[in-house]
Amino acid sequence: MAPRIVILPGDGIGPEIMQAAITVLGGLGEFTLEEHAFGGASIDAHGTALTEETLAACRSADAVLLAAVGGPKWDTTDPAAPRPEQGLLGLRQGLGLFANLRPVRPLAALYDASPLRRERIEGTDLLVVRELTGGIYFGARGRRDGDAFDTCTYSVPEIERIAEVAFDAARRRSGAGAPARDGDARPRVTSIDKANVLETSRLWRETVVRVHAHHADVALDHLLVDNAAMQLVARPAAFDVLLTENLFGDILSDEAAMLTGSIGMLPSASLGAGGPGLFEPVHGSAPDIAGQGVANPLALLLSVALMLRHGLSREAEAAAVESAVNGALQTGLRTRDLGGQATTSEATRAVLSLIN
Fold first, then answer.
1. Which residue among 42, 72, 111, 167 is least packed, with the fewest CB closer than 10 Å?
2. What is the Cα–Cα distance from 192 to 277, expressed in whole angstroms?
3. Number of domains making up the chain
4. Which CATH number do you get for residue 134?
5. Is residue 106 part of a domain?
């Protein structure tokens, strides 16, 4: 039976790059695709960013592929008004997706597209493991007597399960990540927190240290989030796996994305303890270029590769997509965000032509 994939084109450039993903999937084999409105498009059609029907369809699928959500049309400071991003948070909660994986590996063909010098990013191959369903994004919030509040909370079980994901990921990546440090050749997890100020970060650090006791084959160190932000720019190749809570991971993964030369190149996978995963590019909906046919589809195509690998257990097809993207860039393919003129359809055809 063909794998069943729910596709969520979303907003802005979402429908354009989703068409690229559909085209590439068609070149890989047989898949059953089911499309649903999501984000702003769902607000316009149904008054909510995520309908119960869409959530039910996602729960029963083998994987969920999302393009992009959001845009100025739905921007508001009214706390009662629906926002596209609420659909994303609701989908993560509804599917139990607590772990977000964002690989950051600048391709050699794009070294010169990075805002950092080539010698600074050469050899960078890191993975951001971000906790996705806790922290300040899901805490109590509101306004009262001229004050506003957002509450950040974490429980020990929430921290334990994301720490386990990070240590397991480091072990699987052994040999692919950062170089040995101080003679220690073990894979390494760097846990990011703000333990000098925040109580949630102190609990985070204590819990990660305790979980690490069962993973002696993986090295562990800690960085305060502000220092981590600096070190990502100063020495990105020194990192292997970065373990972060929700808010810090949101910010740092976008910073790390620019090491690749464009946020349009970074894929992500959101996974839970079971059931379908959610696969999406890190970039936004880019409403300023929507409808022009110039959006870079490569991050979504690389997200398709993550879906094939982590969601559908199809390693050969995943590797084929990644090899095709790399090959297209090696032959000179450049979309506008990478300093070139290739259109969305031209980029799609270039990748498809290299898939064996």
1. 72
2. 24
3. 2
4. 3.40.718.10
5. no
